[in-house]
């Protein structure tokens, strides 16, 4: 005998749909900015060949809500390279305009992953032009340049390792080993266009290259200051602090142990395997639910009287 469930009243369904739409719009406006709708049209609505096919692993990873966890992990991991951190502290304006930096990064990822080839190339060329002006001297006296292929590769490997780790843990459809290798190979296409020398093509090469950078990494005061800002002082209203805190905990929980101490971040293996993982699953599911909401129909126009 079939189990009969009570029918959800239409008013409840409508309110849930409206809540979902508002939540999705709020997330989209934070990530994409005021120009988000126009940029989305340029990426998804434009004709022309793409760099990646519809079934490419890079599209599965970069289109998933787990990117919110992976993106924050990437920023923490990247900060451990003193020269990369010096460039961020001196030129990115992450404190004064953190949402602007997030929106520029999200557009770069969207354009190169999903956009037409000409738009992807345009964005790449713009970034390379900006990088040509990002140079200076780190607090330890060493010169840095954002166009340095070695430094570019660190930023790249820290980023894709983070995106992949987050997708493995919190993605809706995690990749199998072959798919993970294909993802790394997909991202190498973008990395070469940016000027990265010898980007990894497999997960084994990715792990090997990250290990190769470890002697260069350390927790500078600038890196610890950035971690404190990202994790504890985000420019968010009070209502968003709790879900963001869950997101931050999930991001820290994915960092390798060797990356924790330099940033003075704790390691609680039991808590991270239980409460933090459950919270990360919940928050990514919530973001996925909100951002996959179908467009709401326009309200009916009032009758026009003669």
Strand order of the largest sheet: 1-2
Biggest sheet record: 2 strands, antiparallel
Give the rounded overall mean pLDDT: 83
Helix/strand structural class: mainly alpha
Number of strands: 2
Q: Assign an overall shape.
A: globular
Output the number of helix runs: 14
The percentage helix is 55-70%
Fraction in beta strands: under 5%
Radius of gyration: 21 Å
GO molecular function, one term: oxidoreductase activity
InterPro entries: MPAB/Lcp_cat_dom
Pfam families: MPAB_Lcp_cat (PF09995)
Domain ER-bound oxygenase mpaB/mpaB'/Rubber oxygenase catalytic: 59-282
Q: Would you mind describing this structure in some detail?
A:
InterPro entries: MPAB/Lcp_cat_dom. Pfam families: MPAB_Lcp_cat (PF09995). Residues 59-282 form the ER-bound oxygenase mpaB/mpaB'/Rubber oxygenase catalytic domain. One of its GO terms (molecular function) is oxidoreductase activity. There is one protein chain. The chain is mainly alpha-helical and 306 residues long. It has one domain (48-289). 65% of the residues lie in helices and 2% in strands. It is built from 14 helices and 2 strands. The chain has helices at residues 10-32, 36-45, 57-62, 67-78, 82-92, 98-114, 117-131, 149-170, 177-194, 203-213, 221-232, 238-253, 260-263, 269-291, and strands at residues 135-137, 143-145. Strands 1-2 form a two-stranded antiparallel ribbon. Strand 1 and strand 2 form a beta hairpin. The chain starts with 9 loop residues before the first helix and ends in a 15-residue tail after the last helix. The model is unreliable at 23-30 and 295-306 (pLDDT under 50).
